Amino acid sequence: EVIDWCIREGMIASERKCRVCDKNMDLVCKKRVIDGYVWRCRGRPNVREHDVSVSMRKGSWFEGSKMSICDILLITYYWFNKLPIKYILKNVKVTPETVIGWKRFCREVCMDICMNENSAIGGMNAIVEIHECKFGKRKFNRRRVIDGRWVYGGVERGTNRMFFRVVENRGKDTLLAIIKTSILPGTTVISDCWKSYDCLEDEEYRELTVNRSLQFKDPETGTHTNTIVKKWSAIKRQMRTNPRRGQFDGYLAEYMWRSAHPDKFREFLTAIKLIFNPDDVPL
Fold first, then answer.
1. Same domain, 100 and 234
2. Average pLDDT for residues 103-125, to the nearest whole number?
3. For burial by CB atoms within 10 Å, which of 108, 110, 127, 237 has the most?
4. Domain assignment of residue 252, yes or no
5. Strands 162-167 and 51-55
6. Domain boundaries, position 81
7. pTM of this prediction?
8. 101 neighbors 108 (Cβ within 8 angstroms)
9. Residues 225-265 pLDDT 10s
10. For residue 4, pLDDT beyond 50
11. CA 59 – CA 56 distance, rounded (Å)
């Protein structure tokens, strides 16, 4: 039933062509494989003799995993609903390392989705708040020194549209590049970065006010950056465990995807099918 459901949902290919004779292969039973089925094609009349087998998972999201498809779907559902590892281990017979690895894979999917959906925010009459923040842990419990990653974030007021960019170096040149790629013309941009970098009189920033009709405002002019500051707080709560450097981007992408698609597990599966399309693989 699980395999039939995956085929109907497009998570597993509904047919497969033979690389030798280009005919449709048959989905046949095979006890020695975890799913119990493989695609197979044997030589037919007037075709040179051959016996070709292909994994049922080829090109799919399930390819490469040693877990059953049922366990993969369960772990993904539990991760999506933020259930703790102890709960998952109680309901799925796998190791803690397997659960941790698959949750990391889910966050990588979020990264792919965010890159594919990476569109600029703002526009005419829209207000975008930009703020910078450093994520990490304090060195030797000192109050001011933090070892971690710098992130620029932007949130469009009144919507769920946002962006976050992890950067190696902060500064006005980095911020300028982010504004050019992430903010639409006609936007009012509010940030306390202008004061920190003293950059609004720079020629390139002044050109943006003319060529792209951007308006730059400082929070001291009566505006505020409460919206983006609240986002930072929410992200930091999610990252209380201080993820390793190589995993930080995944946690950030997970937050972005969850914010844009709350309580929509089916949308996550749809995104998976777009990234891991089992029908879009070579013979």
1. no
2. 81
3. 110
4. yes
5. unpaired
6. 69-107
7. 0.71
8. no
9. 567 767 767 766 666 555 555 577 788 788 878 877 766 88
10. yes
11. 9
